[in-house]
Amino acid sequence: MLEQVAVGGFVVLVLAGGVMAAWMRHILYAIIGLGISLFGLAGLFLNLGSPFVASMQILIYIGGIVVAIIFAMMLSIAMTVQPLERNRPKVWFAGLCAATFFGGVAWLLERTEFEVIPPAAAQSWELAQLGHALLNRYNLVFETLSLVLLLAIIGAILIARQERTS
Amino acid sequence: METLPLVLGTIFAPLLGFLIAILLLINCPRVAQTVVLAGSALSVAGSAALLIRGPVDPVRFLWFTSGDIELRFGFLLDGVSLVFGVAVALITFCVMVYSLGYMSGDPSRTRYFAMLGFFAWSMLGFVYAVDLLQSFIFWELIGLASFFLIGFWYEKPSAAAAAKKAFLMTRVGDVGLFIGILTILQVTGDFDIPRLLDPDLGLVGLATPAMLTAITLLIFLGIVGKSAQFPLHTWLPDAMEGPTPVSALLHSATMVAAGVFLMARLFPLFMAAETTRTVILCIATFTALLSATMAMVDRDIKKVLAYSSISQLSFMLMALAAGALFAGYFHLITHAIFKALLFLCSGLYIHHLETNDMEEIGRRGGRRMPFATIGLVIGGAALAGIPPLGGFFSKEEIFAQLGRDGFTVFTAGAFAAAFLTAYYTFRMIFLVTVPERTENGEEPTDHGEHGSHAGEPWSMGVPVAILALGAMVIGFAGPRIAAMLGVRPEEHAFASMIPAVAVVLAGVAVAWLDFGRGSASPQRRGFIARVPALHTLFSNQWYVDDLYRAVLVRFTNAVATLLHAVETRGLDGGFNRLGLGVLGLGVRSTRVQGGWVQFYSGCAIIFLGAIAFYIGAR
Amino acid sequence: MTLHGYLLLGLVLFSMGLFAVLWRRNLIAVLIGVELMMNAASLNIMAFNHYRVSDPSTGQIFVLIIIGLAAAEVAIFLSIILNLYRVQREIDVEGITELRG
Predict the structure, then answer these.
(1) Most buried residue among A91, B89, B349, B388 by CB atoms closer than 10 A?
(2) What is the pLDDT of residues C22-66, one digit of tens each?
(3) Which residues in chain C have their CB less than 8 angstroms from residue B602's CB?
(4) Is the pLDDT higher at C84 or at A132?
């Protein structure tokens, strides 16, 4: 019962945060909405059996990415400036697109049967298992990811670098 | 001493030299060149010690596993790698010592020596590699080192272009090699060379004959690129733009020999693929003749040597393809030594007399330089195959093996190429050493400042002397090398050597008639010049390079013409009106193309949704 | 909650992100939409991982990699935004029409 309530609460958080992120005109509120939504998702991950991924979600996403976005906002627009007006035709068009996509995929989802197997044994969810898999079987992926991150750092520095002459 | 520290020291000492030189000592070239030289000396000592200890079991380390694939690094210490390892280390060391003198005035010689160290590391790593992937990595590093060293004088546009050309042309072959290696992985799930060569559990046992042929052909493509065989041979003459010691080391003795070495390394695979062997024999024979004819007419001493390198590499490939591991491998070793010697001698002339032109060298008194001239004669005789110098024994071995299956077209090609080799080698020697007479029959006086002979410092003379000694004695090491390879060389009757010697002597004699007699005319001409068409063909390198350029350009033009014809004759009238209509439509629809990325992606999303509906409705 | 429930929630979140990407005028807000879509994908993977996979570390690693890629993507995106802001003094998507035909 308690679990049901908790899951329901997280779903509400995800949806409410999502609406905020997608609809609020002021950018700061949108970012806050994103944070709320991510927090709700972390709760759902917990419910899906992975406390580690949930904590990473909070640590990296909310602690790192959301904060970085806030920084970017502060560096690019003054807080006091009125946010941009909504462009009506564009909003309608975007709504149409999103609705078409949603309808199509939901229709597909409704007509698909998924075969569900019983959840894996508890010890296979342990963090040690995850670590083993990451450094043995998925080692190549792991290394590639580190390379991608390095490239991203270098690329970001290159792009954002201020020319000394100007 | 344990094997492992020895082999690690051998391979990584030059790398250490490179790192120290390039990172710490970029501004003090004297210290830097000493450091790199010390590293190279270490690897000479290490490789020699390894050779003396003889073949041992391979050493392997697990690098990482991904799925079922285990990637290993390690060292394969059998006869094939040990002998060549010593040759590589020794020649590298000689060339480095030589470079002390040759590059002494160059402001950026730290970079030069560092790159030599880098090359030594990658070459030794390739020679001792136990894993095909490791081989490939070092193979590419060798190509990189070659790129850097050819383009060492990068401010010269021709050098920069040559470096680029060499890099790109070898890369064409490397693509084939890489696909071949991946195919091997797919068939066997393993990169380990000794296991791949196992007759039952290795590639030969697992792959179908067609698969094996495909794999060996792909690998041969890499060899064609690296060892500059037809049709990818045109990069090597251009690579002579680099400093002469670099040409001696990379583009005659070691780097281009890496292709032949790879074939010797994977010899059992090639033995099992009959079709591939025939293909290799055809290409190698053709290349040997092709490049020998080019060497007959060129006046640039380095280019002549480059063509002769191509030709000799073809000889080795012919021997290997004919099934004679020892003959090809032995020629690989002897050629490395005497060709490095020849290049170093030509470097002496170029350094001192400041010209690449052979007649000019002769005119400026090249014969008065004792080290260079003696080295040139010894190296040239070894290249031509005069007994009892190095080249004679290895070439004799190749002839014997080629002739084993009777007198074929390949044997004939080999003899013709040997004749041409003797001819162009002695043409070179005569042009340099026998001065041309002036009109009234007197020898010309040497030109002023070039008359003094102080231009041969010990650092340049000693390596020449060492290599000359090597070229003289290496021929007698044949049985030892054969024992290292685990092959029992056949004893050849004295009579069987006669044709080979006769062909060589004929070549020398013709060269003497054409160039040696000191003929009265100031323009000495070879017999080929009496057939102007052939002479033009050879001097223009058979127009292969021009063909490449022309084909690319022509092809593009032809497509353009074709399209133009279709357009004007067939489509124009009928489609003009339609075109105008489309134009109008386009003008109107530019308003849709407003550059709004969000609109574009929205349209794509709508279609995605529609597709989802469609799939769901089925 | 069932697998279908999670997938539907993921779809809703994805559509919201899509909506934001398509209508927003501020580039940072577009980025927020992209993040929503990415998280919807993470949720789907975790749900499948829980209900349909015998080795649960696979899906978790997938999600961890998505998080890592998102971090890289955000770093690049933000530096582009800052650069754009320096050049154009605005980050309104409608002002950026270099692709106009």
Answers:
(1) B89
(2) 988 888 888 999 999 999 999 999 999 888 888 888 889 999 999
(3) 22
(4) A132
Q: Which residues 28-67 of C have a C-beta within 8 angstroms of B?
A: 30
The total domain count for chain A is 2
Q: Label each residue of B17-73 as H, E or C.
A: HHHHHHHCCCCCHHHHHHHHHHHHHHHHHHHHHHHHHCCCCCEEEEEEEECCEEEEE
H or E segment to which residue B75 belongs: strand B69-75
Of B67, B602, B612, the CB nearest to A104: B612
Distances from the Cα of B605 to the Cαs of A72, B593, B602, B612, C30, in angstroms? 28, 17, 5, 10, 16
Query: How far is C21 from chain B, CA to nearest CA, in Å?
Result: 7
Domain that holds residue A53: 1-84
Judge contact between B322 and B281, C-beta under 8 A: yes
Among the three residues A84, A106, A136, which one is the final residue of a domain in this structure?
A84
Residue C58, domain extent: 3-91
- CB-based contacts of B67: which residues, under 8 Å, 6+ apart? A137
ipTM of the complex: 0.88
Please count the residues of chain B.
618
Cβ within 8 Å, pair A44-C18: no
Domain final residue pick, A37, A69, A84: A84
Q: Tell me whether residues C97 and B595 touch, CB distance under 8 A.
A: yes
Round to whole Å and give the CA distance between B573 and B580.
12
The separation between CA B412 and the C-alpha centre of its own chain, rounded to angstroms, equals 25
> Could you give the number of structural domains in chain C?
1
> Domain limits of chain B?
1-150, 270-438+456-488+495-530, 544-617
pLDDT at B228 exceeding the cut of 70: yes
Q: Which residue of C has its CA nearest to B598?
A: C22
